[in-house]
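Re: that chain you flagged

S.,

Sorry for the slow reply, it's been a week of failed gels. I finally had a moment to sit down with the sequence you sent. For the record, here it is as I used it:
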Amino acid sequence: MLDNARYIVVEGPIGAGKTSLAKRLAERLDPQTMLLLEDPAKNPFLGRFYHSTDRWALATQVSFLFQRDALLRQFGQLDPGQRVVSDFLLAKDPLFASLNLEPDEEALYQEIFTRLQPPAPVPDLVIYLQAQPDVLIERVRKRGFDSERRITESYLERVNERYASFFHQYDASPLFIVNAEVLNPVEQDDDFEILFERLKAMRSYREFFGYAQ
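Prediction finished late last night. Pasting the structure tokens below so you have them in one place:
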């Protein structure tokens, strides 16, 4: 599966390690791989969102949508056969809208999303990192981003539930689900090598990978 995948997405809730894993995977696959990575630091509303969710949710959501749109339009610049690894799945974008926006704001966001949605290909492989909220909040605190200081475990719990529901139904691409609580392919070289080999051996449309310590 991995050898033939040209467009790979690494997904997961806040703190799961998707961006770090996307970088490491791209480096291992091919030095010429294009990385399409979100940059939360470029969203001027994010810190305010965690301080006052109701007031800043729509602005935060739309800002991320425009950022993702700009990134995905880079597909038009690809060389033939060039790989792409990304840390976001556009089809999942409305997940946060449904979680954080009031009904009238969500309807407005959905209209913007529908009109703006860039013509990106369907991923050849999606890697979904799972972890429980207590693990996620510990990792968020450890990385120490100022914009994330006000994230609560209860918010991460709701985010986690939405992710689980979304990927339970997701069937647009082959899906590799990783238990990222006991497997740390970002910081542990052995875990990354195990994960990489399992991805190369993937044959089913949907697989789960985890091991007990």
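What I noticed first: Residues 53-72 form the longest helix (20 residues).

Talk soon,
D.
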